[in-house]
Design brief:
Elements: H1 2-30, H2 35-42, H3 84-90, H4 92-103, H5 107-117, H6 125-129, H7 135-142, H8 148-176, H9 181-193, H10 197-210, H11 212-222, H12 228-239, H13 251-264, H14 268-273
Length: 279
């Protein structure tokens, strides 16, 4: 009898130990990520991303600078660079989104229309769309040869016109909500792609105020490389006080900027609503 009692006591003891072990395991599996992971993320370096360091400490010290206010009166269609027929010819899908935005105006609707026209993240944008004359280089970068020089010229012309329209729609989106992050960011990147440093600065600043982490990554990504767009963004980073050095602008850069400025300034709507355009 005594032997049975001893076995029962041992069984209860093992049972209590098992319960305690199970509770400990449950705590460990439901705990948040360890500090080792967080530390490795915070200390991770981006050696292969860019030669331009971005100081996040200076971001919070920068006084807020608002983009220029957009007048309701200046949003008339007569102020736009192209007729509706031309807009439809350039991009029928974008035109349909534009018509939807006009019928039911909203920030998101105009942003979608702008994105449909926006080619500023195409791989050939930086040194070909505003290159002006070197169509063979343009064809080579696209891996296309069958369309010929005339076809390449037409593609460049369409991309330039699309940029103007997309910027108009981003401005239209901001007229309904100046605090909209994505409209500020996409206008900033489109202006930087067209080498409009002065014009782009207020929208980069506003984007940093609205969403510092994502905007910092966008600046970092756009500054990678040595094409003219990257040079423009490195200059923007420097002027924002985020690090880097002032850039030197070659005659080829100035030529591209002049072509882009002429295209953008063909829109009275952009001239009236974006300060520093063409400077």
């Amino acid at each position: 009898m005594g032997f049975i009692i001893i076995l029962a006591i041992l069984a209860i003891g093992f049972w209590l130990l098992w319960i305690s072990w199970s509770e400990e395991q449950q705590k460990n599996t439901s705990a948040p990520p360890s500090s080792d992971y967080e530390s490795s993320e915070n200390n991770r370096t981006y050696d292969n991303l860019s030669t331009v360091p971005i100081s996040t400490e200076l971001l919070v010290e920068k006084p807020p600078v608002e983009p220029p206010q957009i007048s309701e009166v200046q949003s008339q269609s007569s102020e736009r660079a192209f007729s509706e027929e031309k807009m439809k010819e350039i991009n029928s899908k974008g035109y349909e989104l534009y018509k939807q935005a006009v019928s039911q105006p909203s920030t998101e609707a105009f942003l979608k229309a702008g994105l449909a026209y926006d080619h500023s993240y195409s791989s050939f944008w930086g040194d070909n769309v505003f290159g002006g004359v070197d169509y063979q280089s343009f064809l080579t970068s696209l891996g296309v040869s069958s369309i010929g020089e005339a076809g390449a010229k037409q593609m460049i012309e369409t991309a330039q016109e699309s940029l103007v329209i997309s910027c108009e729609f981003y401005i239209e989106a901001l007229s309904t909500n100046p605090e909209h992050y994505w409209s500020n960011l996409h206008l900033a990147t489109a202006l930087a792609a067209s080498l409009q440093v002065d014009a782009a600065l207020p929208y980069w600043r506003k984007s940093l105020q609205l969403n510092q982490p994502d905007t910092s990554q966008a600046l970092l990504g756009d500054s990678m490389g040595f094409d003219h767009r990257s040079i423009a963004v490195k200059e923007i980073i420097y002027r924002l006080g985020l690090g880097g050095l002032p850039q030197s602008f070659s005659s080829a850069y100035q030529q591209q900027k002049a072509i882009a400025s002429k295209k953008l300034r063909s829109s009275p709507y952009l001239v009236n609503n974006i300060h520093g355009l063409g400077n």
